Structures are given as structure tokens and as C-alpha cells.
Amino acid sequence: MKQKFRIMILADDLSRLLSRILIIFNRRNLTIKNMNICQGVTPEVLRYTIDLECIDNQIDQLIKQIEKLIGVNYIFYYQAETGEFSQPINWENTPPL
Amino acid sequence: MKKESFTGSEILIKALLAEEVKYIFGYPGGAIMPIYDTILHYKDEICHILTRHEQGAIHAAQGYARVTGKAGVCFTTSGPGATNLITGLADALIDSTPLVCITGQVSSHLLGTDAFQEIDIIDISIPATKWNAQITDAKDICKIICQAFYIVQAGRPGPVLVDITKNAQFQTTSFDYSLCTSVNHFKPYPDTEEEKIQDAAKLINTAKRPLAIIGQGVILAHAEEELKHFIEKTDIPVASTLLGLGTIESRHPLYMGMLGMHGNYAPNLLTNECDVLIAIGMRFDDRVTGNVKKYAKQAQIIHLEIDPCEISKNIHCDIPILGDCKVTLTRLINLTQKANHQAWVKTFGELKVKEEEVVIYNDLHPTKEGLTMGEVIKWINHYKRKNAVLVTDVGQHQMIASRYFNFTAPKSQITSGGLGTMGFGLPAAIGVQFGAKERQVICIVGDGGIQMTVQELGTILQNDLPIKIVLLNNGFLGMVRQWQQLFFEKRYSCTELVNPDFVQLASAYNIQAQKVDRREQLEAAIKKMLNNKGAYLLEVIVEKEDNVFPMIPSGAAVDEIRLT
């Protein structure tokens, strides 16, 4: 069954990185329901927030594929309805969003 | 002191020399002319191989990369030159081949104006590359090229495309090159968890019916010796994927054959009977697993893999061991105990006898009138040199050659696995011959595949390469015809070929050639070909409607493998 997820990415400000991220969704015919890109705490870092619906076992693959992209520094996701994080977040080591 | 300045083109060539590039495969054109002009000045230090098509250039670079383990380099121009690379890039990505492709691009002020031969190759190539970049300023060339050479080899290899605008090729700047050892936030070698290795070793030490399945990752990690040590110590039977062939010699007592759709009977069947499945440097491709819902459900699966994306992608893995398998295998060897699985290994032998009776004997010693592909490979095995490299195209001949070729050395099997690119064989053989000058290169092709890149006979002629081409001609697109016969009630839609006279075609390129259609000519013809000094094309007319067996039909489980 499809679930709602929110993916947060911190990435270098590189041209075409957005294309690379989108292609990962396109390849699986997933549509993005909501998306925001803004500057992170430093000017050279961008913060991506992406909302989408997909089946449970797809999300792990998506995250691993995005994490592999050169320029992506940090990624995590949580289930929108339960607010459950993908991994226990160690806020001390997490770069400020 | 003012630094000496060079043009962007010179900087590129000097950077390639710093990376110890010896061969470039390419095809010139308008937007890359400054670079080609520079190549002329460096012709004593770097050799450019002119192919007859850009697809030929990239497949040749792939062949070179696969046989040497170094990055293959390929040059083409903008527009059509660049788009013709896409098939090769996709092939290299899925088969993890390190390639650096340099394309020319229109001047930066013309970008986005639909200029002559302008195409946005960076966006087009994103899904087919590990990384790509465009250079519009000469001062970026050193940085991007050194990153490119690092990225293609780091972790799981893959292709990189670098697009250089014409103005950057002319622009002058200083040359300041240092080898790249890391890229910001790019982590190609994942951390290995010691705990997982211990868990895996415990499982292996208690296993009663373990099976190891290996892929190209073992070759890419140069872990052939470690693998051999591991399986010999633990007495575990081993089977290989298509791209892993040659990792372990075909006649090793623990080597049980090839996995997958047209693989061997025993390893496929027993995948569903083993208790521990140890996957090393392979990615559970659908051609290997068949129906994933019925794949090795009874087994505990250990997966040694460098790319975290492959863990539990297709098949759920119980113990993932991330990392370079040369390192992880060594650690695993230290923790595993000597074992004896004689009875289990014997079951493979029993099934092999069955496969030999039903399939192999008829393939290698046929009594029917028409020649079989199998008997051609049998005679090649008989007369080939020990460390010969097998290069194949895609189709029935690829499966038969892979099944029966006697592999005795690593890096002996060069073929298009994941993408299944017809037309790969002939140009790849060119790159292989440049990469392994002292080795005998045997290129086995079908009548369909060779005609997709047949123009590369011109490259063989120009460079006087001693490639031995064996053309297995059945007058059909054989693999598609086999499927039409088995699954589309013999409706042979658009698969029959009317072929040219291949002997005359080869002769036009000054390549010695012979055609064989009778069994009594075959042995002598193969002996003559393999003893010939220069290039040789041997056309063998084989049975028109032979099928490749065993076969796991699409959607079936590995233990539903059919012998007939």
C-alpha cells in the first residue's frame, strides 16, 4: 500500500543536481506531491524537501539511490502520517537544516 | 615566476598523460577539432584509435577497460557524436565499466541557441552515467578531469562524461594537475561492520549445504586469489554469473558452472536447495534469479557487495557485508574453518551428468547434419591459446560460447551482460586487443549482431589487429526466434535475415576469411584460423533452428529450469 513520505536532503549547490534527483523518481513513475528547495544554513548548501507517495519497500531504494549521488551530503525521510523517522536521528551530528 | 600557459586542449591531453592514458578511442568532428589538433602534437606519447562510428569507439573503450582494469577513454564531437555514445554509456553503467568519455561542445555563448550540432548531452546522459560535467572555462579542466578519473574507478566503477565547450578548448591558462583522492561527500567505499563478518562466518561454519555465487565484483576487486582460497578452505561449491566467468577456471573441481536463464542445470536447481547462499560481487539480476518470489527462500543469504543500493534490492539479504570484496573475503577466510561438503558437492556432479546426457553431449558431439554452435566452441577450446580472451556479442552464440568456453585465466570473458547490447562484440574486441596485445582475442558473433557494427572491420584493417572473428551464422536473429518458437507458437515475425556474403565482405577489408558449412571442414578451419598471424573471419553456417538449453522460462523459478 502507498504511504506518504517526506524526504529531506542537504546537498551542494550544483547545477543539474535537481535533474539527477528527479530522474530517480521519474524512472519509477513516481510523482512528487510537494517540493521545496531553499538555501541551507550556508550559501553553498541547498535544502530539498520532497513529499511523495510510494510503497514501503520503494522508499529504501529511493533513499539509497539519492544518497549515492555526488553532491548529496545528507538525507533522511519520515513517514508523514506517523512522523516516524527513517533512522534514529542523532541531532548532535546532524548538519543544521 | 609566471607560470607557463597552455590551451585547454593541451591541458586536457597533459591531464590524460598524467593519468597514464595510453589509448584514446574516438571520432573527430567540428566541436572537438582543437583537441584533435593537439593530439597530433602528442602522437608519440598517446595513441588515438580512429573507429568508424562513435558507438564503435565507446564499445572499444569498454573492451579496453574490461580487459585491463584501467579506465577506457573515448573522444567524440558534439551533437550526433555525443548522442551515439549513449548506448555504450548505458552498457558501461549497468556492467560497472570505468570509462571517461570526452565530448566536444559548441562554444559557451552558443549554448541553448540550437546551434549546429548542439545538444544538451549532459542532461541526456544523466541516467546513463555515474557522473558527468560540462566545462566552459579552461581553468576547470584539471579539476574536472582528475575528479572524473577518480570517480570512474572509486568503489563500484562506472562511466563519466565530460563535455568541453569549444571556447574552453582554445582558452589558455596554466597547467596545475594533481591526482584526485577524494570528492566532497562522495563515499565510494562503505564501512564494513565487523559484526556482520562474524555472523557470516558463524553461518558458513555451521552450513551443511552452502553455495557461493560470484559475479564481476570479484574481478573488479582483483579478488580472484582470495575467492579461490575461500572456497577451497571451506569446500563450498561455486557458480558464476555471466560476467563473473573466468574468475575461477572452468575445470576447477568446485566450479559448478554458470547461473541464470541459460546457465547450468545443477547450480540453478540447487540454488533452491542450499541452506546458505553466499553472493559475492553480484547483484541478483533478474536473468539470474528468475522469479524472485521463489528464489532461494529456504536459504540464509549472505551478500558481499560494495554498492549499498544492491543490498536487498531484488532479493532479501540476511547478512549484508558491505565493502571491497578483496578485503571482506580476506577477513572472512580468517574466521571460517576448514570444512568438507563432499556429499553436497556430489549432488552437483549427479545433476551435471544429467545435463551432459540430455543437452551437452548433443551440443558438442551432434549426429545431425547441421553444425551446432557448441561443436564450434569445442574445437576453439582445443586449439586456442591458454590465456585467450573470449569476446562475444549478444544472443544465442553468447550463451553457447559462455557455457562451453574453457576459461583458464581471469579477465577472459568480455561481453555485454546487463544491457544486452547487440553490436558490442566486434568493436569491444578491438579495444581488448589494444589492452592485451600479447593475448589471443577470439570474437564470437552472430549474423545479426555483427551487422550492427560491421563497419569496425575498417578499424581492424587500419590498425592491423590479429583478431579472430568467428561468425556463427544461422540466418536468424536466433534468440528472438527461439522465444518466438517457444512462447509465440512459432510465429517468426521479422527475425529471418537475408545476409551478404561475409567472406567477400571481409575480403573487401583485406581480412582473410573462410566459410564452413560441413562438419569435416570445421576442425581444420578453426585450427587454420587460430594459427593465422593476422585478422581472420571464419563464418560457420550452423543449424538454422537450434535452441539454447537449459532454459529458465521468463517468470519461472530457478528450479523450474528446462533441459528440453
Written description of the protein model:
The complex is a heterodimer of chains A (97) and B (564). Chain A is of the alpha+beta class and 97 residues long. Helix content of chain A is 24%, strand content 39%. In chain A, strands 2-3-1-4 form a 4-stranded antiparallel sheet, covered by helices on one side. In chain A, a hairpin with a 5-residue loop joins strand 2 and strand 3. The mean pLDDT of chain A is 86. With 564 residues, chain B is α/β, with parallel strands linked by helices. Chain B is built from 23 helices and 20 strands. In chain B, the strands form 4 sheets. In chain B, strands 3-2-4-5-7-6 form a 6-stranded parallel sheet. In chain B, strand 2 (23-26), helix 2 (33-41) and strand 3 (47-50) form a beta-alpha-beta unit. The longest helix of chain B has 23 residues, at 342-364. The N and C termini of chain B lie far apart (77 Å). The relative contact order of chain B is 0.11. The mean pLDDT of chain B is 96. The A-B interface holds A 12, 16, 19-20, 23, 27, 60-61, 64-65, 67-68, 70-73 and B 122-123, 126-127, 131, 151, 183-186, 307-309, 312-313.
